[in-house]
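FAQ: What does a multi-protein file look like?

Like this. Sequence, then C-alpha cells, then the next protein.
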Amino acid sequence: MKLDVAHQVPGRVRMKIPEGKGNPALLKQIADTFAAIPGIEQVTVNPATGSLVMHYDVDQHDEFHGGLQHHVRQAGGYHAPATEIDEFARKIEEEAEFLARNSESARAVVDFFKQLDREIRVATDNNVDLKILLAAGIIGFTVLEVGAAAATPVWVTLTLFGLNHVIEMHTRHDDGGPAAAPVIVKP
C-alpha cells in the first residue's frame, strides 16, 4: 500500500493514501493502527480525498516519528505469501489496468468491479470481498455441475484460497491494543 506524506508541520502530518479514496473502512483501519503511536492526539480521515491527518504532541516529536517510521515499515514490510492463485489474480489486475488505460469501455468495466469490491467490503465490514465471492461461486458451480466427488481438487483448492484470503484480510499488524487517540471519519 502506498502512503505519501503530503504535508508536515510540527504537530501535524497529512498523508495521502490512493487506495483509501472512497474506502472509509480501509482508512479507518489504517487510522486505528496509527492512533496507537505514542504522542498521537487525534487522527482524522477523509474518504473523499483518501487522506489521513495525524495531530501529535510536539513535545513528543521524536517518539512520534520513531513510532510512525516503525508502523509504516511494519505495514510496508509485511506481505502474505503469494499463492499461484494470488499471482494469477495480480496478473489479471495488471492486464485490466493496461487495457483500461487504452479503452474507455475497459476503464468502465475495471472501475465497475473495483467499486463492486469496495461496496462488498463495506457492506460486510471488510469480512468478505469480491475474490471470496468469486471463489465461492466457482465452488458452488463446480459442485453442482460436475459433482462433489469429481470436483474435490477444485473445490478444496478454492476453499483453501478463500480461507487464506479471509485470514490475510483480518491479520492485524499492531499489538491489538486499544487506540490511544480518537479517530474521526469525515463524511
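And here is the next protein:
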Amino acid sequence: MKKITLTAAIIFAALSTFAQGWTMDKAHSRLGFNVTHLMVSNVDGKFKSFDVIVTSSKDDFSDAVIELSADISSINTDNDYRDNDLKSPHFFDAAQFPQLTFKSTSFTKIDAKNYKLQGNLTIHGVTKPVELDVVFNGTFQNPMNKKTVAGFRIKGTIKRKDFGVGTGTPTAVVSDEVEIDANVELDKG
C-alpha cells in the first residue's frame, strides 16, 4: 500500500512540475456581457474586477484548467442608476452573493484556433453547467518584458433566470438571454 501511495505522489509531483501557470493581464482583458432592452436595443456592460487563472502543460492549451472569479459590485454599464439596480436584490444581490465564479470541466480543441469550453458557472448562489466558444489567438513573446503571452476570445449565451437573476423582471423589459463576450490575455509563469 505504501508503494502505491508513494508512486501516486511521485506521478502527481511530476505532472505538477510540467503544468504551466498562466495569469491574466488585467490591462488587456475584458469580461463583458450584453442584454436586449425592451426587445429593441442592446445594453452592454462589464465587470471591472475579475481574475482568470489557467493551468496547462500543453502549448495548445488542450489540457487547460480554467478558473474565473468576478466581483459583482464591479459591474459597470456606464449608468449609475442601472448599476445600482443590478447590484440590488432585484438582480444580482451583491451584498449576499458578492462573486460569480467559473471552473472548467473540459477544454476541447475543435481545430487550430477553436475550442469548446465547458464548466460550472455560479451566479447568485446557483451553479449550472455552461458551454462557451473560445478562439485561441495564439502566443507571442512580449518585446517589453520578454514574457510569453496568449490571447483568447470567449463567447456564449446564458439565461439569467436559470441563475435566479432578475426573476421579477419580464423578458420584454430585459432579455432572459445574456450574451457573454470576453477577451483574455494571459502571461506565462
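Q: Is there any per-entry metadata?
A: Some entries carry free-text notes. For the entry above: The chain is about 15% helix and 50% strand.
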